Each structure stands twice: as structure tokens, then as C-alpha cells.
Amino acid sequence: IFLINKLSQTGGLKTQGIFRLSVPVSELDHAIVLLNLNDYSNTFFSQVLTSPHAYAVLLKRWFKILNDPIIPYSLYEDALNIIRPPILKDANYKQISVNEFMNKKLPQTNNLFLKYLIRFLKDEYTDENMLLNMMVVQNFATILASTLIRSNQEDKAVDVDQLRLEISFIMTVFKQIDNLTKEEETWMTEAEKWFFENFCK
């Protein structure tokens, strides 16, 4: 929540190349140390790390270093089966929708984090902001897929078909997730308020 709010506060919604540009490693390393210490109010974030690109990189890195991705390893095949053509699925597979996967299979915390990210991204690719950041939903899905869903198989060889399925799944999630429930909106609003009052001034 902190990183997404800082990304928004620093103009990430209207910044061309967001999520695609790098930043100095020294700044990232310093920021990561502070984040690991939960030192969100450190002046480094308000006076030094003022580029939205830095927060975009930090957000991607945070997703990437999770021991278990936002789409857990145990649900990797279930997620891709939503996208796979019927001919490639097990005969006993029961088709489910993306919404069913999110709300019934995904752990609640993962579900809320992903929906919070999606709520932010939907602001990114509004018609007004797309004219400025030059990003459409396909761009976000391509950039973020590898940080949100990945296999834990030891074979690290790049499987192009598998990568396409991962990107297609994430793009489907970004496009099809409906509005938040009242409870989810309340949780996110309260969490945002707490962060804004304490760390995002």
C-alpha cells in the first residue's frame, strides 16, 4: 500500500515509461533497507526518492522477492488452466472464471493485494492518463506478469508458450475483475487512510 500510494503521489499515473525505466541501484538499496526496517516516514522517501520510476521498480521487486508469489505456486496450473485451450486441459478439469479463482481459490490476503493493485492500474490506463503514460492494459500485464505468477519448477528454460499463458492470465485478471465488495473497499480505504496519515504526507 505504501509503495502504490507513493507511486501515485509522485505522478506515476501520468508518467511516460512507468514500470519500464530503471533507477540508480544505490537509491534502491537504501530504500529497501528502510522498508525492511518499516521506516516509512524517513525523509529519504520525501526528499530523495521522488521519482515515480523508483517506486515502480520497488513495487516490482517486492512482488518478485516474495517467497510465494501473489498467485501461489500451488495454484499456478489452476490459474493457467483458465486460459488454456480446452484441448490442452485434463478431461476432468472443471472450468472456472477468473472471479471464481480470485474469490474462492486465492488466499484472502493475496486476493486483496491483487485487487488493490488492479484498482490503481485501472486509473493508470484511463483514456486521459494513457495519453500521458503511453501504457495500455496489455503493457502492464506483460511487464508485471513475471512478478505476479511464476512456476517453481527447477527447469529455468524459457517456455515461450508458458510465458504467453502467464501474460494472458494476468491481462484477463486486470480486465475482468469487477468492482470491490463493500467489505473490501472499506478495508482498503481504512488501510489507505492509515498510511496517508502516518507515512504519505
TrEMBL record:
<dbReference type="Pfam" id="PF00620">
    <property type="entry name" value="RhoGAP"/>
</dbReference>
<feature type="domain" description="Rho-GAP">
    <location>
        <begin position="1"/>
        <end position="181"/>
    </location>
</feature>
<dbReference type="GO" id="GO:0007165">
    <property type="term" value="P:signal transduction"/>
</dbReference>
<protein>
    <recommendedName>
        <fullName>Rho-GAP domain-containing protein</fullName>
    </recommendedName>
</protein>
<dbReference type="InterPro" id="IPR000198">
    <property type="entry name" value="RhoGAP_dom"/>
</dbReference>
<dbReference type="GO" id="GO:0005096">
    <property type="term" value="F:GTPase activator activity"/>
</dbReference>
<dbReference type="GO" id="GO:0005737">
    <property type="term" value="C:cytoplasm"/>
</dbReference>
<dbReference type="InterPro" id="IPR008936">
    <property type="entry name" value="Rho_GTPase_activation_prot"/>
</dbReference>
